[in-house]
Amino acid sequence: MSGLKQTIIRGGLESLFFTGAHLALKPLVGGIGAILTLHHVREPRPDRFQPNRILEVTPRFLSRVVKMLDRSGIDVISLDEMHRRMTARDFGRRFVCLTFDDGYRDNLEYAYPILREAGFPFAVYVPTGFPDRLGELWWLALEAVIAKRERIGLVIDGENRSFDCATVAEKRELYDELYWWLRARESEAELRAIVRDLAARYQVDIAAFCKDLCMGWQEIALLARDPLVTIGAHTVNHLALAKLPEKAVRAEMDLSRTVIESALGTRPAHLSYPYGDAGSAGPREFAIAAALGFKTAVTTRPGVLFRSHARHLTALPRISLNGEYQQLRYVRVLLSGSATAMWNGFRRAQAA
Ligand SMILES: [Zn+2]
After folding, report:
1. Ligand 1: distance of its center to the CA of 102 in Å?
2. Do residues 339 and 16 touch, judged by C-beta distance below 8 A?
């Protein structure tokens, strides 16, 4: 995300908080609860070029969020309990679900002790390729290539191009440009091939990120045996499903569920779509997840939950705890629903 965009978002969150508008809007847009998205929970690193920092919060910040939730009187509930409340139309108490995508090892190391102490249930959505050590965390490989070089070369649309990335500002700009250019490729196979080629050319070991950062099956099993923890599916290969043929989408969802069941003995009932934005999961994916019998499935479309989401249980929005905005006042504004209501033009359920 560009610095300017971050400043505008931060400004919007600040003004919603300091004007008290989030309190005024809450009865209108606060809905019945929210699902929070987290990725990494770990100690901050000093590097100035960290384009993926949006995907991590510190253990200290998570502790503060947990304390705030504890004091607020909001119920922190499991995905099964959320599903029960939605289908039984039991909307008497506001609730929050905590979800972690990708199965990072720091979830076990830092997040789990904090949540266990609070007695808060949470879910971890695991792409089975990650503990199977087949995962390609290509966004980190791209970061590593740009971090270590002052200039990189890349074939774009058949043309050999080269990019300067000597300064932190240039690195940030180039990362943004290449990230979104890659995400716009017609197939994810093309995206992966380009990053594999880049990584090989600049001696970045793309397989190492998965091994170093993601839990193996034994670690996932450690978490899974705690009744507070729900292990959810996050497909096999972490691909943008909307770009795949229908058969492959079904296989990605169904096979991941079977692999998790055979590794842990429990069949996942909940799914998170990889990337989760509108370009990666749409009505076709929502219908397939429902047809396969998943109780709920979550996107990364921003929003709180409304009663009407009971009819769209495989197209649920979430609120991301973004590492660039680690302030409790932002979380309060986000949970009030006012920020996401503005982003969504005050529309509620979006299943299209
Ligand atoms: Zn993911």
Report:
1. 5
2. yes
